[in-house]
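Weekly sync notes, structure subgroup
Attendees: PM, AL, DS (notes)

Item 1: joint prediction request from the bench team. They want all two components modeled as one assembly rather than separately. Inputs as received:
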Amino acid sequence: MRGRRWLMTFAVLLGTATACAAVAQEAERFEVRNAYVELVNGEWLLDVRLDVALAEAARQAFAEGVPLVLRLEIEASVERRLLPADEVVSMGRRWQLAYDAISERYVVTDVKAGTHVSHATQQEAFEALGRIGGTVIADTATLPEGRRFDMRVRATVEIGELPAAVRMLLFWRSWSRTTEWYAWQVRP
Amino acid sequence: MIRRWLPFVAGAGIVIWVTALVMLALTAEGPQRFGELYLAILLINVAGVVALLILIGGRLADFVRDWRKHVPGSRLRGRTLLMFGGLAIAPLLMVFTFSVLFLTRGIDGWFHAEVRQGLTDALGLSRAALDLRMREYLDRTLGIADRLAADSGVGLYFALDEELRNSDAEELIIASAGGQTVAYSRAGIQHALPEAPPEDLLMQLRQGRPHVSLQPAPGGGYQVRAATQLRESGGSRAHLVLIATYPVPQRLSDLAATVQQAYQQYGQLSYLREPLKAAFVLTLSLVLLMALLAAVYGALYFSERLVRPVQDLIAGTRAVAKGDFDTRLLRPSHDEIGYLVTSFNDMTKKLARAREEAERSQATVEAERAALAVILARLTSGVISLEPDLRVRVANQAAGVILGVDFEGAAGRPLAEVAAGHPLLAELHEVLQRHLESGDTEWREQVTLRTDSSRRELVCACTALPGDAGAQGLVLVFDEVTQLLQAQRQAAWGEVARRLAHEIRNPLTPIQLSAERMRRKLMRGLGAPEAELLERSTHTIVQQVEAMKQMVAAFSEYAKAPEMHISELDLSALVRQVADLYHAQDPRVAFGLSLDPKASLLEADPGRIRQLLNNLLTNSLEALDGQQNPVIMIETQRTGDQVALAVIDNGPGFQGGLLEQAFDPYVTSKPKGTGLGLAIVRRIVEEHGGTVEVDNAPQGGARVRILLPATAREARRAEGRREKA
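Output from the run, pasted for the record:
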């Protein structure tokens, strides 16, 4: 009798823990929704859509003025017979999302291009961050038009521009999330 | 090899560690600096901690092994280690505590409420200044929109350019309500189409409210965007909006950017505040750990260095205690420990020299002692050396023979204990004790020792052994003179006998002849009574003279020493022959013979041996006169090179003091005896080189025991000695 009661208690606790974990999973979501490439004027352009729903820790850090950084890793490889695949493209792009207290706007900066776009609300800014389009990844010289190749992308979002050592030291406070690789094959 | 490079490695490690500490101090400038240096600090300290842990582990293992094995000095090293460790660790912990306190306070100091408030105020001030500009630009935009209301078609585009030239705007855009650009005018070279207006702007305009906002400029700084609906004029320009972009003056823009940057950095700092404190504390803890480990290692190292000379000294002392005086220690330094080591080495040198001298002296003493032992062993005099408390130190063989004591193992035992069961020694001990009680340690005395069966005459001399602290004991030297005295007495009696024989024998014959002549001449002229008297008197004279002749003859026999005729004889046969003769003479006496066949062959003078047996049996028969069941036992036995002969009767035995003087002439208990029987027996035995003893048998009666050499060698020697005498 006593053993059954213990079993029930354990089952309740296990269920509660599972539910909490599920809620936490639902509250935080960061993944590649879809991605594709298209050939425009002899250049391969990448378009990626991300679901960005950050955890409370990241939102709190962002609210205190710590910028968020989004990194996108892009790889393209061509299969070869009897040999490992030839990785013809391996590149990364970075964007930074910061709050401008003077203008009271959220600014998304393309670090490489140096351009930025401001948004009135945080939600708009996150949505803008999740829309990555028109990124040139290669030209036809690198990736010929009639050739089949494999693409994969992965995104990482992390808190601020912390120095590496500080990030290593503050591992319990630093926050970052990385999506799974999103891979697809491009056929002619 | 490793030990040679160890100081250099340790020195390099210390330099690197100090560098890390300096770097740690530099990190206090801010998180950026901290970030740049932290990895190096961390790696240096982790490497140092690992290296120190390995070194400490090795030394601790050695220390624990020494402690468990009770290696000399390990306890001292443990105490020194505790002392050094305590002295080093306590201040380190104190410094650590205060450092953590200062660090956390320092970091907290970055985030004073006044600083945050100042930044917020600066932000507010900047916004207020920009708000003025924004309202001004909005008014200008509204004015432009009013003026553009009158234009349409191509005139609108020209009017737009005109307005751009007449205003501070850098861009004017006329767009549809959906955000599509209808017309635009921009200052400078126009490279690309303007961007689509943001949705929030269009939404606000659709609601009928003009829009003004501050935007971060693409090249840095800020710009003001103002927008409003264009009023309708005839319905052809329905839902058009005017969007104007004005640059914020450079000065104002820079100031605002500075405030924004400071505000952002402060936000980052606020976010990193607690982690930074934790990181500093962690780093400091790591440094402290390294310092502690260094202190522990230092304590281990210095305690070992400090204790090692002491350990060497202890080991050296133990070696010296075990007799190894060749132990020499290396002088570790020129301080007090070095002086101690030098003194120890001097001491061991002196001890080694002293031991060599002692060994030489001991060898000399041993040699002298061995020589003395040989001398003592060869001495015919008995020597007993005693401790002051009368414990036996040493006794020679002659002492044991004289006193009938085996002194083997008697060394160290009290003389009284050794004397137990040995009457002669016990009596000698009493004599010695008597002298000591009277305080006499130097004495010389002739001592007569008596037992139930014998008497020993000893000439004793006692002297105290000299020593630094009084008498170191006694030495008792004694000689047995029993036989010497007996020989002297015997020689004296022999002389007396010769004189008696010479002086008395001569007048006896005239006396006898005169008495017979007187009886013969006077007998006829006397009456019967007188004749009878004469007859009786002369008869008595003749009879007594005859007796005196016999006595003189006996004396003559005792005194003279005829030549010995040594030959082999059958002792058993001789004993049986003599025994039969005496049994025939007195049949009531029973003879018991126990004759050893091995004792039959004897080299001796048969006549003298027969006389010896005659004298012994005569004495026994006379002693058994009137005795009930008289028995005489005659026993022979071969013991080595000697033949033992014993004659035992069951008579009354020797009475009183007769036993001591049984061999003296004229000593007799019989009314008609001459007292020469046993004296002659003794002389015959001694002529044959043997010994004779008399005592009373345990079951009663007299017992005479004779030991004769089986061969004639001793007899011939005895004869030689007698002739010389």
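Discussion: The longest strand of chain A covers residues 83-100.
Action: AL to compare against the crosslinking data before next sync.
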